[in-house]
Design brief:
By secondary structure, the protein is mostly beta strands. It has two helices and ten strands.
């Protein structure tokens, strides 16, 4: 059940995004394993206290356009893809994207995700669930 929640959580967010594929100068990481973490500090370091999920995520980065394109895989099958919103890209190892606060279906949500020195980190909170969730991804 925990794995499905993570996969739905991640893919649900990415599925809502607008996919944009134009002339890309891409830098890719390959597929990264997604982990569920209990604290922000654990997620930011993607340490051994985080639990590996069956979900994988892959990023394609266009530094010149500050575009991050994400593909989400569940048990090896592509389940969602799209361009992340509101991105600031320094290089393929350092970028940040986020919607901030938004209302979807009368629910308030907050999303922030980033690649910091090559470690992917994501934080989300929904008004329907007072617990903030943290995820990370690495090889």
């Amino acid at each position: 059940m925990k794995t499905l929640r993570c996969a739905f959580y991640i893919s649900g967010f990415i599925a809502c995004l607008l996919a944009q594929q134009n002339a890309w100068a891409l830098f890719g990481w390959g597929k990264l394993n997604v982990y569920s973490c209990k604290t922000e500090q654990d997620a930011m370091s993607c340490n051994a206290r985080c639990d590996k999920q069956s979900t994988e995520i892959e990023f394609e980065i266009n530094v010149d356009r500050s575009v991050v394109f994400a593909k989400v895989f569940e048990s090896g099958a592509l389940i969602s893809s799209g361009a992340l919103e509101k991105c600031s890209v320094a290089n393929k190892n350092n970028w940040q994207c986020g919607q901030g606060l938004e209302v979807i279906n009368n629910r308030i949500s907050f999303h922030k995700e980033a690649m910091i020195d090559g470690t992917y980190y994501r934080e989300s909170k929904f008004s329907s669930n007072p617990v903030t969730t943290y995820h990370c991804a690495k090889r």
